[in-house]
Amino acid sequence: MNAPVQRIAVLGATGSIGGSALDVVARHPDRYRASVLAAYRNVEALATLCARHRPELAIIADPALEDALARQLAALGVRCEIAAGPAALEQAAAGGLCDTVLAAVVGAVGMGSTLAAARAGKRLLLANKESAVCAGALLRRALEDGGGPLLPVDSEHNALFQCLPGGRPADLAAAGVRRLILTASGGPFRGRTRAQLATVTPAQACAHPNWVMGRKISVDSATLMNKGLEVIEACVLFGAAPEQVAVLVHPQSLVHALVEYVDGALLAELGHPDMRTALAHALAWPQRVESGVPFLDLAARGRLEFEAPDTRTFRCLDLAYRALREGGDVPALLNAANEVAVQAFLAGTLPFPGIPDLIEAVLDSLPGQPLRDAETLVHRDLTARMKARAMLAGMCC
Ligand code: NDP
Ligand code: MG
Predict the structure, then answer these.
(1) Which tens digits make up the pLDDT trace of 156-167?
(2) CA-to-CA distance for 397 and 393, rounded, in angstroms?
(3) Is the minimum distance from the CB of 22 to ligand 1 under 6 angstroms?
(4) Ligand 1: residue whose CA is nearest its atom 48
(5) Taking residues 218-231, what's their average pLDDT?
(6) 3-state secondary structure of 54
(7) 339 alpha carbon – ligand 2 mean position (Å)
(8) For residues 304 and 396, what is the distance between their CA atoms, to the nearest angstrom?
(9) How far is the CA of 70 from the centre of ligand 2 (A)?
(10) 211: Cβ below 6 Å to ligand 1?
(11) Which residue has the higher pLDDT, 212 or 305?
(12) Pocket test for ligand 1, best of 10, 48, 105 (most atoms within 8 A of CB)
């Protein structure tokens, strides 16, 4: 008997991950259906996706755009339910229209819907790393309460999942794991000095050498904060201690992560830098489906290079380790300060080296607190943002 069609809520459908996921979904109509599509403000792109994928529900997170979405859908002859506002994402993530949730919203704003999906026991495909960074222990608890599987989409964590016994073993030491090693391309500014970074532009920062991604994560890759967030994400998803997670620069981005075992074996996952492989894996696990990604010809590629990260020039990685060691809600404060700093850099009001400076200043001025619950966390996230904006105003004037 054929397995029932998986009904997927794609939260962040209009983004880079959303687009890659829908490409894989469309290749397997017998297996997958995008039953819910959600975006923030991009009404036109959302309506176009609805015309193509015919979901049961379309959500626009900005409530002011509900009528605009209704008009666009009517113009395209699409009939589906419409919902608006941030709460609609959480309701859909926990609701009956889906059994799988792809959390692909960008930023800490994705936390509520990620937690709702986990609590409801949905099959959770996690791309929104900021949820894991900010909500850490809350996410682990929600997963235990809900009892559904978490499949990491972030390519490094998806690679770790593939190289670890059982995907996410309960006890890394018992599984013979010594270290989890995340690779980083080094971003577009690898090899530059601090002085050279003073004048780089948002367009240069967003021109990633290997991956095509949204603007926020592209800047995070350029500062190495993306890798810092991923170190925290690895600790949350795999129960690792900070000293068990290492970072290795690998400019070709073909090896996505490695697991080092106590006997000296290193297991790695390789593939083209195309998120459709990780998405197809997360969708189909424990089976495999075609993703549309070409097969990797290693003989044609020739070389794989590795080097240590330059943490003196790219200070964000060490700031993330600091937040991880301080624990409690400090990773959420780090993330909030980073989101404000990246926005300011993209808007042209903060130079690139100001990103780690601002984050460090926020961490120095706001002592961490224990991670209590989602409501307190939202409040602390806001406090860190307000502090960062106030400092930013001081830095710019
Ligand atoms: P994009 O910027 O390309 O897309 C972001 C998506 O989130 C869009 O659909 C956007 O809608 C939606 N969105 C933004 N703000 C809100 C909001 N307030 N409420 C609801 N939806 C919102 O980002 P990416 O696809 O690059 O990244 C998505 C997530 O996946 C991030 O957490 C990123 O770190 C992670 N990730 C991405 C990778 C990649 O290759 N791109 C790799 C690994 C992880 P709209 O278009 O309407 O603004
Ligand atoms: Mg990644």
Answers:
(1) 999 999 999 999
(2) 6
(3) no
(4) 40
(5) 98
(6) coil
(7) 17
(8) 42
(9) 35
(10) yes
(11) 305
(12) 105
Please, where are the H alpha helices in the chain? 16-27, 43-53, 66-75, 86-94, 111-119, 129-146, 155-163, 194-197, 202-206, 215-223, 225-238, 276-284, 298-301, 316-326, 330-346, 354-365, 374-396
Ligand nearest to the CA of residue 211, numbered in listed order: 1
The yes-or-no verdict on residue 277 having pLDDT over 70 is yes
Which whole-number Å values give the CA distances from 337 to 245, 284, 286, in the listed order?
Answer: 23, 36, 37
Question: Taking the CB of residue 357, how many other CB atoms lie within 10 A of it?
Answer: 15
Structure tokens at 60: 């626009």
Give yes or no for residue 219 CB within 6 A of ligand 1. Answer: no
- How far does the centroid of ligand 2 lie from the alpha carbon of residue 221, in Å? 9
Going by alpha carbons, the residue nearest to atom 36 of ligand 1 is 127
Q: Is the pLDDT of residue 76 over 90?
A: yes
- Which domains are assigned to the chain? 6-148 (3.40.50.720), 155-274+286-313 (no CATH), 327-397 (1.10.1740.10)
Query: What single-letter amino acid sits at 187?
Result: G
For the segment 261-286, the average pLDDT, to the nearest whole number, is: 98
CA dihedral 162→165→167→173, nearest 10 degrees, is -120
